[in-house]
Amino acid sequence: MAGSSVSGSAAERFGYITRVESFSASHRLHSIHLSDEENKRVFGKCNNPNGHGHNYKVEITLHGKIDGLTGMVMNLTDLKRCTEDVIMTTLDHKNLDKDVPYFADVVSTTENVAVYIWDNMVKVLPPNLLYEIKIHESDKNIVVYRGE
Questions:
Q1: Is residue 8 pLDDT above 90, yes or no?
Q2: Whole-number average pLDDT of the chain
Q3: pTM of the model
Q4: Can 84 be counted among the known catalytic residues?
Q5: What value, to the nearest 5°, has the Cα angle with vertex 145 and ends 142 and 148?
Q6: What is the pLDDT of residues 53-103, one digit of tens each?
Q7: Active-site annotation holder among 59, 111, 132, 137
Q8: Which of 61, 63, 57 is nearest to 21 (CA)?
Q9: What are the structural domains, with CATH classification, of the chain?
């Protein structure tokens, strides 16, 4: 039959899977490359010397071939383990600027948090599977990073 799908056919199918994690962290938006006055002007109340916090929601999306034997792009249990290692262990209930060495000289904006997560997820995932990191800093502020 034309257009019918046969189990075990040679046609490759691709899919997207997403794992969602939530973590809480504090930070201060402050660049070591700007004066105190410039930091206050650029970052406003987010430059508070005592910092502030967020309850972040992160969506990690993979794109890949759906395995003909398992029916999966990746085993979600394995993906969960990767997100635990990269996100929960290193970022949850941390002061990003003081507890995460990456942010010692990188401003801890949500854009840079997305880059940090991307760079560390690609180290623990099978090659070429990571598609997108989406971080909800709040209900109104969302950052998307795709490795560009």
A1: no
A2: 94
A3: 0.91
A4: no
A5: 150
A6: 999 999 999 999 999 999 999 999 999 999 999 999 999 999 999 999 999
A7: 137
A8: 57
A9: 14-24+53-145 (3.30.479.10)
pLDDT at 6 over 50: no
Task: Locate 5 and state its tokens.
Answer: 């799908």
Question: Which structure tokens are listed for 78?
Answer: 């394995």
User: Which whole-number Å values give the CA distances from 22 to 10, 48, 87, 120, 126, in the listed order?
Assistant: 39, 24, 9, 17, 23
Q: What per-residue confidence (pLDDT) applies to 11?
A: 85
Residue 122, both tokens: 């690609």
DSSP letter at 22 equals E
* pLDDT on residue 10: 64
Does the annotation mark 12 as catalytic?
A: no
Name the active-site residue from 46, 59, 111, 132: 46
SS3 string, 49-91, reads CCCEEEEEEEEEEEEEECCCCCCCCCCHHHHHHHHHHHHHHHH
Residue 82 a catalytic site member: no
* Annotated catalytic residue, options 38, 52, 84, 93: 93
